[in-house]
Design brief:
The protein has helices at residues 2-7, 12-52, 67-82, 89-95, 98-103, 111-116, 131-149, 159-173, 175-184, 187-191. The chain is mainly α.
């Protein structure tokens, strides 16, 4: 509560009110972020499977994921093993974190040549520009998502811009999906109640 108290001139009631609102706005962002994460995982997996012509595209010759990518796949496999689920490409894909998919848009070790140009650009048909700029946008949202997931304060951010960034990235994938998320999002309404 120290961060909240400091921002509220040590008024404990105001600090608690701000803390509750932070929880409420974090919850409002859950849906839009969920759709972005699921959409990115789905379309990126689809394009990589099509390009490498195998469901476990990460094992295809030429993929050459950086060490952290390979490590995340091993962690996903171990998690499935631990809970007694079959180790299938679909379940591995679902266990991989948002950061894994964001990293595939990064520099990697030649990801531009091996992943972006032959396949991943198709996952974002509404995007025009260099891969680096798209990576920067989704990595920013990954950090924002993690802040929410770890119950951090977000009340001090420009939350309208954060919401707009999510919708923009969704439009890169599917304008219809972005419109649906915008229509059902509670973010704008919760922002009007900011203490």
């Amino acid at each position: 509560m120290a961060d909240y108290a400091m921002r509220c001139a040590d008024d404990p009631v105001a600090a608690l009110r701000l803390h509750w609102w932070n929880t409420e706005i974090s919850g409002a962002f859950y849906g839009p972020l969920q759709y972005l994460e699921l959409a990115m995982r789905s379309v990126m997996t689809r394009e990589l499977v099509a390009h490498f012509v195998q469901d476990d595209w990460w094992n295809a010759p030429g993929t050459q994921l950086v060490y952290s990518g390979r490590q995340r796949i091993s962690v996903a496999e171990q998690k499935l093993r631990t809970i007694g689920l079959p180790i299938t490409p679909r379940l591995i894909s679902e266990e991989l974190p948002f950061g894994f998919y964001v990293s595939l848009l990064g520099r990697g070790d030649g990801y531009d040549q091996r992943l972006w140009r032959p396949a991943l650009y198709r996952a974002f048909p509404g995007y025009r520009g260099p891969r680096q700029n798209l990576h920067r946008k989704v990595d920013y949202l990954r950090i924002f998502r993690n802040k929410i997931a770890h119950h951090g304060p977000i009340h001090h951010r420009h939350l309208t811009a954060d919401h707009d960034a999510i919708l923009e990235c969704l439009r890169f994938i599917d304008p219809g999906l972005a419109a649906m998320v915008e229509r059902h999002s509670r973010v704008s309404e919760v922002l009007t109640r900011r203490p």
